[in-house]
């Protein structure tokens, strides 16, 4: 699963495999925590992160929603998703 962004100790990854389950989503890792977020709404779908890191991931996802959607399409075609700028 390639890393598409990293910021403030948070690693963002997205699988690239045709037929990956819906809804479109990405994975966030922070220390021992891991969570899955919706591409469309930046909503926490599964797992957990500390509250501050959830807010950082959601802010990043809202800023980069179009890039995340494009990466999801690449992933569904079996192509590696592109890197996305970190939260500054």
SSE blueprint and pairings:
Layout: E1 3-7, E2 10-13, E3 25-30, E4 33-38, E5 44-48, H1 51-63, H2 65-76
Antiparallel strand pairs: 1-2, 2-3, 3-4, 4-5
**Biggest sheet: strands side by side, in what order?**
1-2-3-4-5
What radius of gyration results from the CA coordinates? 12 Å
Instruction: Give the N-to-C terminal Cα separation.
Output: 23 Å
Shape: globular
Q: What does the main sheet amount to? A: 5 strands, antiparallel
Quote the average pLDDT: 93
User: DSSP helix count?
Assistant: 2
Measured by DSSP, the beta-strand proportion falls in 25-35%
Poorly predicted ranges = none
What structural class do helix, strand and pairing data support? alpha+beta
DSSP, total strands: 5
In percent, how helical is the residue content? 25-40%
Q: What's the order of the H and E elements?
A: EEEEEHH
3D architecture notes:
With 88 residues, the protein is of the alpha+beta class. The chain has a domain at 3-49 and 66-76. Helix content is 28%, strand content 30%. The protein is built from two helices and five strands; from the N terminus they run E-E-E-E-E-H-H. A five-stranded antiparallel β-sheet has the order 1-2-3-4-5, with helices on one face. A hairpin with a 5-residue loop joins strand 4 (33-38) and strand 5 (44-48). The termini are far apart.
